[in-house]
Design a protein that fits this description.
- The structure is a single chain.
- This protein starts with 10 loop residues before the first helix and ends with a helix.
- About 25% of the residues are buried.
- The chain has 2 domains: about 210 residues, Crotonobetainyl-coa:carnitine coa-transferase, domain 1 (Rossmann fold), CATH 3.40.50; about 80 residues, 2-Layer Sandwich (formyl-coa transferase, domain 3).
- It has about 375 residues and is an alpha/beta fold.
- The strands form 3 sheets. The chain has a 3-stranded parallel β-sheet, with helices on both faces. A 3-stranded antiparallel β-sheet has the order 4-5-6, with helices on one face. Strands 7-8 form a two-stranded antiparallel sheet.
- The chain is about 40% helix and about 10% strand.
Amino acid sequence: MRACSRNGIASSTLRSLGPPWVGNTDGKPEQSTYFQTVNRGKKSLTLDFSTPEGAGILRRFVSESDVFIENFRTGTLARYGLGYDDLIRINPRLIYCSITGFGQIGPYANRSGYDYLVQAMGGQMAVTGLPEGMTGAGPMRVGVPIADIAAGNNAVIAILAALHHRGKTGRGQHLDIALFDSQVALLLNSLSAWLNARAPLPRTGNDHPTAVPNGVFEARDGAILIATFNDREFARLARVLDHEDWACDPLFARSRNRLTNRKALGEQMTAILRSRGKAHWMARLNAAKVSCGPINDMADIEADPQLAHRNMFATLTHPEMGDVRVVGSPLKFSETPVILERSPPLAGEHTEDLLRDRLGLTPGDMARLRAAGII
């Protein structure tokens, strides 16, 4: 058994997905920076469950576990006697969570699925990218594995709900989470517009499809993001730009008017914004309660004082890799704050500890298992 990362790619794959690598590793694939993103705080056990003895060891772990998460292709674990129906007999309280590309049932159930593919099939690329008629127009993927992330988050939500149900009934259950489902659920207003009005929302690049003005604008020394979602916010924006008349102008006063006259409004705003620098406009707009901010790159994010204040970066020390920098938890608890203590593990780093402490195996047992290639 190898710990599986939250974003749907087996840990063994993520370990070698580089460069770049962590620290002075001489290009060893176990040290990829990608692997560090989603594996802090975990322990790693390597186990060949394709062997009867390896499968037996996994069943022993399952017998005392609350949750079992797997992201193998549909039906894979059942071939080794490790499917839901097999393991629920061992532990009726078990919550068995399967994360796959297309789910446990349906005509696509046996297909493999990765984030990029699911972004394409699940409509994300149809609504992302520059609008038709512009240079570079066409479908575009989101720059982070959004379908993977959504599926991981949905799995956590489902597990928490299943734990609540088990607390009332004593029974576990099988959770079937698909990247495809998760991506489609992210479409929100884009899909609703089609389902209810047969009105596909076009790709709009950096502009919002319905809220105007809401996008990237050029100041004298670079670009900023300005976001307004209602007429009240637009009136505040107009006042900051010394054009209070816009709030009464029939071309711009209502959201639907601004949408129709997006280009004309954008041109007038840009002419004003280019007269001063980014810092000037961000200070004035934020003071007026108009959402506005910079377009940060990774260096900007690392140096952001708000993120520093909220402990969104941490340095963990690994005995072999040295210091590893990770992103902190976005979950903030008043009574039980998240404490980051363990750096992302090496493959099999905790195998012997887990077998000894959880299952009571002796050094001799583990030596035999290692010689047989089971661990």
